[in-house]
Amino acid sequence: MELVVHDSPTGVARAVSSSVSHMINEAAYAGEHTFSLGLAGGSTPEATYRELAATSTEWRKVTAWLADERWVPPDSPRSNGLMAEQSLFAHVPGKLVRPEYSNDMAPEQSAAAYGRLLRDIHLDSPPDVILLGLGNDGHTASLFPGSSALDETRHRYVSNVIPKTGEVRLTATYPLLNTARRILFLVVGEAKAAALEASMAGETPAGRVGGSETKVEWHVDRDAASRLS
Ligand code: 6PG
User: Fold this and answer.
1) Average pLDDT, 10 consecutive residues per value, the chain (229 residues)
2) Which end of the chain is more exposed for a tag (fewer CB within 10 A), N or C?
């Protein structure tokens, strides 16, 4: 695990976008067939996606997918997929695969279908990079404290209910996240300081991410790191 403290949220966005761009280009030049990029949701990664859209990157080899999604229509302003489309994939020739949504579909069905799609994407190789955020309560993707998805040991993608609000989410599980080659956490702001401190001690859902082969990097700003000694 590596922790990198940047001066500002912009510093986090620039560092992560250039690191991801570099990894994609390196894989492209090495002739690798597909680069699998898992995307974080929420508000923090949007600046990184806008930075990434401005880089010179071999997007044709990239298949991106969502580490989690809210159970909302695809054009909802709360959709992580819509945010990733508008801030990045509307501007670059890469592929973004989003979970299905319809009024007469159960979230479990959508999660299972997306899980199968992700299984097929990773038949020959694991995810190259997954970007993740951190909630004030220590959740990441939609793996919330006290939620059933934390105990999932088989399925790669499931629907999950946020215990506090009853809201339904779709989320990657540890069985998928922990197969990744690299995981980059993006964390900014003082409001995340307590959750970051607890995550460094492995006491949160986010702090439990990372398999034996996974390189985990935390890219945080000074405010988020304010409780770390
Ligand atoms: C989501 C996310 C979630 C997010 C954290 C942090 O759908 O909300 O995927 O895990 O990363 O809640 O969110 P902010 O970046 O908005 O603080």
Assistant:
1) 97 98 94 89 98 96 97 98 98 97 96 98 94 98 98 97 98 98 98 98 97 95 96
2) C
Ligand 1 centroid–CA 32 distance in Å is 31
Residue 115, ligand 1, Cβ within 6 A: no
Q: Could you tell me which of 126, 125, 99 has the C-alpha nearest to residue 113?
A: 99
Nearest Cα residue to 176 out of 65, 90, 74: 65
Of ligand 1's listed atoms, the one at least distance from the Cα of 139 is: 10
pTM (predicted TM-score) = 0.97
